[in-house]
Specification:
single chain; mainly alpha; 84% helix
Length: 165
């Protein structure tokens, strides 16, 4: 049994990490990216923000995993590994699958889309690309960011369902 003080600290860290990770995703998708679109130096600005936010997001994910394991194993609803016999376990499974989707989206954005945007911005600066090319990539980035916002809401929904049990 986990001591209640340790569990309380785990909840606090978990909530802070959730706010930082999901809050950052929502802020980027609904505020920063739309405000930067079409602005001169947009690619450099978004790259700089990504460089600052990625380590914070990764630290938040590590905190979520560690504190999540503590909370999972201390829950009275937890009936065993890969045992999905109650609503709580099913909600937690769906939550974790959705988080996996969010992580996949983030990897795509960081490892594929952002480098494409940076490369196209450099080509545009040297006259070897068209403004339409960067605009298309920016639209894709905006759309994918919005998908991650929806996934974030789904994660919070499954968390609420699990907490209600």
């Amino acid at each position: 049994m986990v001591p209640s003080q340790f569990l309380a600290v785990s909840y606090l860290i978990h909530i802070i990490a959730t706010v930082v990770w999901i809050g950052g995703i929502v802020f980027m998708a609904l505020v920063v990216t739309p405000a930067a679109e079409g602005e001169a130096g947009c690619s450099r600005f978004l790259t700089a923000i990504q460089r600052r936010f990625t380590p914070i997001a990764n630290l938040s994910l590590i905190a979520l995993i560690v504190t999540g394991v503590v909370q999972l194993t201390s829950s009275s609803n937890y009936v065993g590994f890969l045992n999905f016999s109650n609503i709580w376990a099913k909600a937690i499974l769906l939550k974790h699958m959705t988080v996996g989707g969010m992580m996949t989206v983030a990897l795509y954005m960081n490892l594929v889309l952002q480098p494409d945007i940076n490369r196209t911005a450099m080509l545009l600066a040297s006259g070897k690309a068209k403004p339409e090319d960067t605009a298309a990539l920016s639209r894709r980035q905006s759309q994918i960011s919005q998908i991650n916002v929806v996934l974030s809401i789904v994660v919070l929904l499954f968390t609420a369902i699990a907490r209600a049990q």
